[in-house]
Each structure stands twice: as structure tokens, then as C-alpha cells.
Amino acid sequence: VQLQASGGGLVQAGGSLRLSCTVQGRTSGIYVLGWFRQAPGKEREFVASIVWTGVNPFYADSVKGRFTVFIDNINTGSLQMSSLSVEDTAVYYCAATRPRSTEYVYWGQGTQVTVSS
């Protein structure tokens, strides 16, 4: 299983951006899709997650109400980000767990999101 994140870019504060995570390989080997981010000089932090069947979305408090995580189709999951602020600037990663596991073992390469004031 390989993950590829895309959709990052430069956006003004208050704007929106949608990230996508494409899965190459058997999606039957995936249980939960997660999104993480790492800002310069900071540790990587959890952003959101969803079971690959499209249920049980879960969000970090910092993005709740602004970000939406969902599964587009059998091979793609997305993170819709709205009301972006400069504090959301980071490299965003998608990751996935295996079935019956909570450990994120599959990671995408990251996509840069930059929010300008």
C-alpha cells in the first residue's frame, strides 16, 4: 500500500483548500485514514481521521468546525479545509492504519499548505 497526498498550495487567510490522499494498492489493507501536519519548528500533530468505509470522522480541536474529512471513492480520501488561518501553515501528511490496528504504518510524502495573512 502506498499513499500519495496532493492539493497543497498557497492560499490567503480565510480561504479554502482541499487535500486528497490517493491509495495505490489494496485498500482492503487499510482501516483508518488519518491526516497529520507539521509546522516549521514544531512536532507533527494529528488533524483528523476517518474509517476508510466513511464512518466515524474525528477531529483535533484546533480544526473542528473548519475541516472536513471524507472518503471520495474506493481509492481516495480528502480533507476539505475552510476558514484557513496562518496557524494552519504546515506540511500535511496522510497516513493509514492496517485493519484491527491503531498504528499508522502507511504514510504519504506530504504536501505543503501555506496560508498568507
Description:
With 117 residues, this protein is an all-beta fold. The protein is built from no helices and eleven strands. It has strands spanning 2-6, 9-12, 17-24, 32-38, 45-51, 58-59, 67-73, 76-81, 90-97, 104-107, 111-116. Strands 2, 4, 5, 6, 9, 10 and 11 form a seven-stranded mixed beta sheet that branches. A four-stranded antiparallel beta sheet has the order 1-3-8-7, with no helix packed on it. It is globular and about 40 Å long. The mean pLDDT is 96.
Question: What keywords describe this structure?
Answer:
single chain; 117 residues; mainly beta; seven-stranded mixed sheet; four-stranded antiparallel sheet; 0% helix; 55% strand
Q: Roughly what percent helix? A: under 10%
The N- and C-terminal alpha carbons lie at a distance of 37 Å
How many DSSP helices?
0
Which overall shape is indicated by the principal axes computed on the Cα atoms? globular
| Number of distinct beta strands | 11
Class per helix and strand makeup: mainly beta
Strand content: over 45%
Largest sheet geometry = 7 strands, mixed
Order of helices and strands: EEEEEEEEEEE
- The value of Rg in angstroms is 13 Å
